[in-house]
Amino acid sequence: MAGCDNNPVAVVTGATSGIGKAIALELINQGYNTVAIGRSHRVLEDMQASFGVVPMAMDITDREALSAALEQLRVDVFVNNAGVIPKPAEFPAMELADIDRTLEVNLSSAIAATRLVLPGMIERKRGHLFFTGSIAGQAPFPNMAVYGASKAGISSFAAALRCDLSGTGIRITELVAGRVETRLYRNALSDQKLADMYSVFKPVQPEDVARMVSSILTMPQHVNVTRFDILPTAQYVGGGGHAGIDDWWPDCPL
């Protein structure tokens, strides 16, 4: 189990695809004992065999399973990355189940997980918490009110938590991503729609985000990168991108 040697321990939620998987693999490359949490047993087994992650298959909303998984770990880096996105729709047309699931996975579970790893970090007077946010939490986008609310909540929580932990030696970084080429939309859009969205302009790759995380972790202990925004060069916060490329879903942030 991770934590039994002198290597630092990193835990990444939502680690079986996209940004989470890229971060987990990057941390392995940087010498971390990396615990990958996700729902896909198959992907986790492949990651363990190919890269050496410690797999933990679970639904991040299962409080008891998450507590049991984390209570024995000495966590040095915790990446709150697990997230979902509901089908884009005007708020009155949204299903209540989609609303509840979005808030539970994107916000409530991140807060609950943070509460589990913080006592050990406080005791050791060091640690680094990452939260995967979104530009949807920084500016309004149509048909994404609940998703935006969940990411705005993450941003507010990270900022306020930084105040509470001042002087403890614990660093907190919010990752504010624009359009990243991941499968986050796989349950909300058809394959063709996904292909269309990512063909409008060149999106950020998950590995780009992972390299930023790795770079931040190399900063001296007295330096905290509180937030970084990572967007395609063609995109701006509050819109899809520059004039002439907004014909398809112009206000989609991801």
SSE diagram, text form:
Elements (H helix, E strand, L loop, with lengths): L8 E5 L4 H12 L3 E6 L2 H11 L2 E4 L5 H8 L6 E4 L15 H29 L2 E6 L12 H20 L5 E8 L13 H9 L6 H12 L9 E4 L24
Parallel strand pairs: 1-2, 1-4, 2-3, 4-5, 5-6, 6-7
Helix pairs in contact: 1-7, 3-4, 4-5
How would you explain this protein's 3D organization?
- This protein is α/β, with parallel strands linked by helices and 254 residues long.
- The protein has a single domain (9-230), classed as NAD(P)-binding Rossmann-like Domain (Rossmann fold), CATH 3.40.50.
- The protein is 40% helix and 15% strand.
- Strand 5 (127-132), helix 5 (145-164) and strand 6 (170-177) form a beta-alpha-beta unit.
- Helix 1 packs across helix 7, helix 3 runs parallel beside helix 4 and helix 4 (96-124) packs parallel to helix 5 (145-164).
- The protein is globular.
- The two termini are 35 Å apart.
